[in-house]
Amino acid sequence: MRVTHLWRYPFKSMRGEALTATRMELGGIAFDRRFAFRDDTPGSTRLGKLETARQHLAMLGYAACVVDGSVVIATPDGSRLAVTDPALAARVSAETGSRLTVTEDPSGGNHDDADVLVINAASVAKLASEWGGDVDPRRFRPNVLVAGDEPFQEEAWVGRYMKIGEATLKVVKPCIRCVLTTVEPETLSVDPSFLKVIAQKHNASFGVYAKVVEPGAVRVGDDLAVTEGQNVPDQVNGVKV
Questions:
Q1: What does the pLDDT read at residue 108?
Q2: Coil vs helix vs strand at 61
Q3: What's the mean pLDDT in 14-39?
Q4: DSSP secondary structure of 104-141
Q5: What is the rounded CA–CA span in Å between residue 44 and residue 102?
Q6: CATH hierarchy code of domain 2-8+16-29+111-229
Q7: Where are the domains of the chain?
Q8: CA 215 to CA 198: how far, in whole Å?
């Protein structure tokens, strides 16, 4: 199997950026989901929680990238703002009606379940045939897209290890999909039937989450090999993986 695409999402729930090469560290790809919005609306039932496109679909119209070590946000009208610019939170707050604050977590704590999300191009193609339409892999907001040999072979990887380029990851769980998969990445049009197909045919899961256990460089074109984990540590910094 071979890596065909890499992505990172410097701001949680905004569009990400395609990469040709990256380094996977303990905690994931540098800058992935590093920034997020927190709800600071007085009296809100979500006070103190992270706000995502699940609550505010308009966030998917913004795009985040890393420029010279800093995160820059492209707004839907084409303007660009530094992630630290107060105008960013003010603008999205006005659009959503919530008081939002930008929060930063370089540890990977803004990830949903694990460091890295991997999907299989063969599974994307199969799902497209089941749904009856074209499927952009970016619907799933993955970090890694691989050209697998068979659709949904990745479901058998849970509990095993992946060697990707110079990095080693442990596959920890399937990814249970949410409403964000119903959104077409370019047009932001919503079709609930897409998630319904995933739920009916694949127990609502698509792709697998993995935890980095040995850091290393990863590039588009690198091979991905799944192993039982010989010579791979069961703990990283004292934490069981």
A1: 86
A2: helix
A3: 96
A4: E-TTSTTSSSSSEEEEEHHHHHHHHHHHTS---GGGG-
A5: 17
A6: 2.40.33.20
A7: 2-8+16-29+111-229, 35-104
A8: 32
Res 194 pLDDT > 90: yes
Residue type, 139: R
DSSP letter string, 156-202:
GGTTSEEEETTEEEEEEEEEE--GGGGB-TTT--B-THHHHHHHHHH
The pLDDT of residue 135 is 97
How far from chain centre, in Å, is Cα 32? 8
**Strand order in 28-29's β-sheet?**
28-29, 21-25, 216-219
What pLDDT, on the 0 to 100 scale, is given for residue 167? Answer: 97
- What are 204's two structure tokens? 């609502």
Look up residue 172 and give its two tokens: 């920890």
> Does residue 220 contact residue 21 with C-beta atoms inside 8 Å?
yes
DSSP string of 71-97, one letter each residue = EEEE-TTS-EEETT-HHHHHHHHHHHT
Cα distances (Å, whole numbers) of residue 66 to 17, 38, 235: 8, 21, 31
- Cα separation values, 176 from 49, 62, 145, 173, Å: 20, 24, 17, 9
The Cα–Cα gap between 98 and 22 comes to 35
The pTM of this model reads 0.91
Distance CA 90, CA 88 (A): 5
Q: Tokens standing for 236? A: 């990283």
Residue 165 near residue 219 (C-beta atoms within 8 A)? yes
